[in-house]
What does this fold into?
Amino acid sequence: MIGDHPHDVELAAATGAQGIYLLTGHGQKHLAEVSAMLRVWVASDLNEAVTWIVSGRDPLEGKREEIQKAAEIIRSGGLVAFPTETVYGLGADAFSPLAVARIFEVKRRPHFDPLIVHIADPDHLGRLVQEVPIRVRKLIDRFWPGPLTIVLFKREEVPDLVTAGLPSVAVRMPSHPVALRLIEEANRPIAAPSANPFGYVSPTTADHVREQLGDQVDLVLDGGACEVGVESTILSFLEETPRLLRPGGLPVEEIEEMIGRVEVGRTNEETPLSPAGCPGTTLRGRPSSSVNVKAIPAQQGETVGFLAFRESGGAMDQPIEILSRDGNLREAAANLFAALRRLDVLGLDLILAEPIPEAGLGRAIMDRLRRASHPDEWKEKQEYAP
It folds into this structure.
């Protein structure tokens, strides 16, 4: 059975259908009405649903136990590579900064970029964003699940590491049945860039992921070759006029048919830095890695705080934030943005940052600190990790 209306659900149940393929649009609103006796799949369009039916196979056949295992890995802070209709993603619990830090560690990115958060139900958008404009709801009704990512102002609960310190978050609902079931089973949003090391081509098969990442991922869910094969279209609603940040699997012309004109490209104002990304307090690197001092050198009358990489056991008179008690780079990355924010709100004249070893995640941390200490010199734009 294929449908997008309550009557289709009733008909499927009455005729003894084995399952129902719900299309984007109204079908998503009636998931709760589907009988527990019916198996449900979500298709992005009629062609996809027909292809599944003609093939005569359950898109989740033989994968349910593996998906349950993958969901448990996500809930426990692990990493799972999973298929979407665009490319394979490298996923972690979006509300766990430590798990998200591991994404950057595995991808070996030299800087922090915003990640796309994946959900399995449009109603879960409210857990991530402050509000959903009417134009966004129209797009969601028409194109979710599918290759469309929406950028909106985030709720405070969303970790700054997911958004790279920006006040906005990018969210999408993939249409791949394995991805949707994984998110549902994990019962939490999943942050996921593409499952490849920095500088490599995005993977469109499970074998690509295994070749590029090897055993660095806790589990690779094989969902076959990705149908779209290019990244999602990213549309920002941070300004009055929607702005296309990245062309992708959904043509901008189809978007404009629904909501009118869309600006193309970025502006200087499009990616504002939040206090977590670039503190209002002056931030300066400290040449010495030792914090075992009674006072931090500063100009007379200056109030100074300190951002330390690890604990040294020394006492300090000034406010101090320690990124990792034992010098763990993953923990330091997970704590970076929140620590900067806590120092920034103290009204200090100066924040001094201890150097981080520039290996692995240390490079990304130092990149962020350099940008934060010289915001006027930072001309390049942050990109959403593919």
